[in-house]
Design a protein that fits this description.
By secondary structure, the protein is of the alpha/beta class. The protein has helices at 61-81, 104-118, 137-146, 160-165, 174-185, 202-214, 232-238, 247-263, 283-289, 316-324, 338-349, 363-374, 380-384, 392-396, 398-405; strands at residues 30-36, 89-96, 120-130, 150-156, 188-195, 219-224, 267-270, 273-275, 293-297, 302-305, 308-312, 330-335, 356-357, 387-388.
């Protein structure tokens, strides 16, 4: 089951934001995330806020687009009433769950509501995640016609036994087909991979990397498998039915990935994200890491506007109830103080290629940089230019680097 929500203050039922969110707002971009909380089956490793049809407790997929459109109207009203300047939307991201489980007309309806509410900035990036077995050629062409610019396929692996351990249902042979259709439709293509699955060898991973590169995508995300508490995979590992992933093997896999992607002309711009050039980085994800504003629509979606962060009720039935009653679906929210905002910047900016300004660090953090350079985790030349930038080894140990920078 999905994990629990954080604890914080209750959110007001009208969703209105404090005046403080207007500070420096003109310097921040606006992005919209739409969460689509449905999957046909749940993969054994996944604890995302998503529900199969028998977990919906009366909520209906067919009602969802209309509810999301209501929240988009609320968002437009709240942002305006809070005194924020009018800003067209720079990036839109439909994630899940499986957005493409909905009819493409539903995705088009939600995107149209976003365009009506704010308009799109010139060159706006509009992405949807897609499960390779939930789209066909017509669907991808209809996405493009509706205004989507980019599709991110959950490929995960090209190796049958790895996909089986992950309980992925798609046939790996379908990847070249869906990628070709997406390109033909004029969509940019990103592929998601997972490495370090129990039973996956370095050779298996090499096969998956080659398969991804053979598709010439614009963008690749590669995530180390996280064993999330409460998932079926975590139970299988606890019972000894599948092996525990090895940290050393995951590190070897990341090094292989980095080398092969570099040789193929891809460059990393965030620890788990690579693009074929700067124009194909995911601007939506960069906006999260760089502290811009985003509104998250849908059950369990998180939002951040000018240092105020909130999250919606998680279950689609609870979400539907709130929307039907004309109330904000927010379950809780918090206003981040200056120190929390600084800590978050250290956490997020350290993981991106452009790095973190040394001036963001406290005395202890600045002292830690010398040790991190000596340990080969941080780039010495960049530090001289006033920036903390990770080396390859630093990317492998990014969480430990952040702890040292925060002097924990
Ligand atoms: C919401 S899913 C992607 C869309 C679609 N539902 C799919 O799976 O094809 C986003 C991505 O998160 C990654 N992911 C999910 N659970 C993960 C875990 N436990 N460890 C590492 N990556 C994970 C997967 O690569 C997945 O493609
Ligand atoms: S399809 Fe994607 S969101 Fe759905 S359960 Fe699998 S990984 Fe999670």
């Amino acid at each position: 089951m999905p994990s629990a929500l954080p604890l914080a203050d209750p959110a007001p039922s009208d969703g209105l934001l404090p005046l403080s969110v207007t500070d420096d707002a003109a310097d921040r971009r606006l992005g919209i995330y739409v969460h689509v909380p449905f999957c046909r089956v749940r993969c054994g490793y996944c604890d995302f806020n998503t529900y199969t049809s028998d977990e919906l407790r009366g909520a209906k997929r067919t009602d969802y687009a209309g509810q999301a459109v209501e929240e988009i109207a609320l968002a437009s009203h709240v942002l305006e009433a809070s005194g924020l300047p009018e800003r067209p939307v720079s990036t839109v991201f439909f994630g899940g769950g499986t957005p493409t489980l909905l009819p493409v007309t539903d995705l088009a309806e939600m995107l149209a509501a976003i365009v009506v509410a704010w308009g799109l900035a010139p060159g706006a990036e509009v992405t949807t995640e897609a499960n390779p077995d939930s789209v066909d050629r017509d669907y991808l062409f209809a996405l493009k016609a509706a205004g989507f610019t980019r599709v991110s396929f959950g490929m995960q692996s090209a190796v049958t036994h790895v996909l089986a351990t992950l309980e992925r249902t798609h046939d790996p042979e379908r990847i070249p087909l869906v990628v070709a259709w997406a390109r033909e439709a004029g969509l940019q293509v990103s592929l998601d991979l997972i490495y370090g699955t129990p039973g996956e060898s370095l050779d298996d991973w090499n096969t998956s990397i080659d398969a991804v590169l053979a598709q010439h995508p614009d963008h690749i995300s590669a995530y180390a498998l996280i064993i999330e508490d409460g998932t079926k995979l975590a139970r299988q590992i606890r019972r000894g039915e599948v092996a525990t992933p090895s940290d050393d093997l995951q590190a070897d896999m990341y090094e292989l990935l980095d080398r092969k992607l570099d040789e193929a002309g891809f460059r990393w711009y965030e620890v788990s994200n690579f693009s074929r050039d700067a124009d194909h980085e995911s601007r939506h994800n960069l906006a999260y890491w760089q502290g811009h504003d985003w509104w998250g629509v849908g059950p369990g979606a998180h939002s951040h506007v000018g240092g105020v962060r909130w999250w919606n009720v998680k279950h689609p039935a609870a979400y539907a109830d709130r929307i039907l009653a004309g109330l904000s679906p927010a379950a809780g929210r918090e206003t981040l103080g200056p120190e929390t905002r600084r800590v978050e910047r250290v956490l997020l900016l350290t993981r991106i290629r452009s790095g973190l300004a040394l001036s963001e660090l406290g005395d202890a953090g600045r002292l830690a940089v010398a040790g991190l350079i000596a340990d080969g985790l941080v780039n010495a030349g960049a530090a001289l230019r006033g920036s903390v930038e990770l080396t390859l080894r630093g990317r492998l140990l990014a969480d430990a680097v952040v702890r040292r920078l925060l002097a924990e």
